[in-house]
Design brief:
The strands form two sheets. A six-stranded mixed sheet has the order 2-1-3-10-4-11, with helices on both faces. A five-stranded mixed sheet has the order 7-6-8-5-9. The chain is 36% helix and 19% strand. The relative contact order is 0.18. The chain is built from ten helices and eleven strands. It has two domains: 164 residues, D-Maltodextrin-Binding Protein, domain 2 (3-Layer(aba) Sandwich), CATH 3.40.190; 99 residues, D-Maltodextrin-Binding Protein, domain 2 (3-Layer(aba) Sandwich), CATH 3.40.190.
């Protein structure tokens, strides 16, 4: 039997041509899921999982297209300029929420030119310290920084990355503490320098950061989520360690070009949520420390994105962060 689209044409077998009201079917052709990062990374892997699973039940295939460059703006522009039919979607992270403040001359608007389809999951971060530092807890580390302004450094995956912004927010909420920011080209070189003692702190995504802590290569001080992580219940949150208002996480979201018809948006949302409901998918995403959001709607995802754009825009302005 032929697989039927998620949105069927309105009217049944008895409807007359004059009375039938066709509705747009989705998908009518191959769906491009644009990932604005390179292949094989922390964003590409779950995107391919979604694409593979949706291709099993949709009438058309979903394929991942990696379009990295210029701080995710290359891939985002591809989708912003695509036809408004749901056949070109963006799979992006928290990076989408910081573009407006980081790149004021963008050829598109991260809010006005996109329609969020679904918030798929959030990913807590873990703050790691060099294991040879005298500080064994976050309050002790913050006390060292407070007593020695500018002496200690923290690494990040680059200016404006989640690792940079969440650490900057933590220092701000801890009392405008001053530490040197050292940007790297991604997390691996930053982690190498943390282990070697060339930097004091690095905020890593939980699925890799917890491994360094478990092996004793670095010391986990706190997690950025609002509650403790099941994978590491012994590690306190920022708030439990005495810093309120800094709980944060990066996230994954699917977005379509603004103006995509509501029925198409609803169908795409249903496809992503169908994948999120699969136990085997939940297990695989759990291994990546992605906390799934199986009940998100286009409306709730849109409200979430707007709040994130406003929040990180404020952090970027207050910290004077700019692209170098």
């Amino acid at each position: 039997m032929r697989r039927r689209p998620l949105l069927a044409l309105a009217g049944g077998a008895l409807a007359t041509p004059a009375l039938a009201q066709p509705q747009p079917a989705w998908p009518r052709e191959t769906v491009r899921l644009v990932v604005p990062f390179g292949p094989g990374g922390a964003t590409d892997i779950p995107a391919r999982l979604f694409a593979d699973e949706m291709s099993k039940f949709l009438p058309q295939r979903v394929v991942v297209e990696n379009r990295s460059g210029a701080g995710v703006t290359v891939g985002a522009e591809v989708v912003a300029r695509a036809p408004k039919d749901g056949h070109t979607l963006l799979y992006n992270t928290m990076a989408h929420a910081v573009m407006r403040a980081m790149f004021p001359r963008l050829p598109f608007d991260p809010l006005a030119d996109f329609a969020p389809v679904a918030l798929l999951g959030v990913i807590p971060m873990v703050l790691l310290a060099n294991k040879d530092l005298p500080a064994r807890t976050l309050p002790e580390m913050l006390a060292l920084i407070r007593a020695n302004p500018g002496r200690y450094s923290y690494g990040s995956g680059g200016n404006g990355s989640a690792t940079h912004l969440i650490t900057a927010l933590l220092l701000k909420r801890a009392g405008d503490l001053r530490a040197e920011h050292v940007p790297y080209r991604g997390a691996p070189p930053a982690m190498l320098d943390l282990i070697a003692g060339r930097i004091a702190l690095f905020l890593d995504v939980a699925n890799t950061g917890l491994g360094y802590n478990q092996r004793g290569d670095a010391r986990a001080l706190a997690v950025s989520s609002a509650s403790r992580m099941p994978q590491a219940p012994e590690i306190p949150t920022f708030a439990e360690a005495g810093v309120t208002g800094a709980d944060s996480a990066t996230w994954h979201m699917a977005l379509a070009p603004a103006g995509t018809p509501a029925p198409v948006m609803a169908a795409a949302n249903a496809a992503f949520r169908r994948v999120l409901a699969l136990p085997e998918v939940q297990a695989k995403l759990g291994d990546l420390a992605i906390q799934v959001r199986p009940d998100s709607t286009p409306e709730s995802s849109g409200a979430f994105l707007a709040a994130e754009v406003a929040r990180w825009g404020t952090v970027i302005r207050e910290a004077g962060i700019a692209v170098e």
